[in-house]
Design goal:
alpha/beta; FAD/NAD(P)-binding domain; 2 domains; seven-stranded mixed sheet; five-stranded parallel sheet; 8 helices; 17 strands; EC 1.8.1.9; FAD/NAD-binding_dom
Length: about 300
Amino acid sequence: MTRELFDTAIVGGGAAGLSAALVLARSRRSVVLLDAGAPRNAPAAHMHGFLSRDGFPPSRLLEIGREEIASYGARLVPHSVTSVTGDAGDGFVLTTDEGVEIAARRIILATGVEDVLPDIPGAREAWGRFLLHCPYCHGYEVGDGSLAVFGGVPGAVRHALLLRQWSSDLTYFANGSAIAEEDARLLGARGIRVNDGRIAELLLDGESFRGVRLESGDVVPVDAVFLRPESRPRTELVAALGGVVDGAGFAHLDASGRTSVPGVWVTGNLVDPRGQVITAAGHANAVAMDVNADLVDDDVRVELLETR
């Protein structure tokens, strides 16, 4: 049985994947979007900073996006991609966890990143509600409350200095790490309290947040804790095709989002883990245009060969 060949397969159906699918489908390309249905921002009730959609539920945005791409003929396959083979010359074959094989001329990976949370009780339950990562996404909603920063991770001091923009009641938990003299000076200049304790637990009471329990047993009541988590990129498919990834696992790419594997692009949080929904969607919009231009070049090359 002959596999259906799509112009582009997009892996990942968040804002980036949907945005790329919309542009390519409107360019009259055959598009298949493969998505397992586990977006990074699933724990968040609302998204912010997206012009005209501020405060919109992320799940609703995805629902509308799926309806839009379907109206232009894009295909949605609700599966995970487990392997990929092939190249840009003969085409790629993607295999899903359900055993479905899909052929495509080009691939866009919008698989995002996995946020690595601290291994303490309450962290996973609080994530996206009381344990937050992005001040621009959540700062306004918790601003003027009592906030804390989970220290002892790269960038934590800078994160605290930024959060001071939203609240004057801010505690930096050193979390067992030494604070450099210069960092202590900067935190002091911004009026940020430093607590030397190590966080043992985030205390939730149903839908309420009670605060932070330290290893000493002390409980510090705060309204929310901000954390800069490690972000692990989901670039396994790039690596499987022999693509170059750096020490952190991110794919090498050029300004257009092309990876070192011809015919494969990356976009969204897979390029910039800090990017908000609107940033991811915008980057994917540009990536889709580049993919379409590459397909046009390929179409012209084939047509020239056929006329010889």
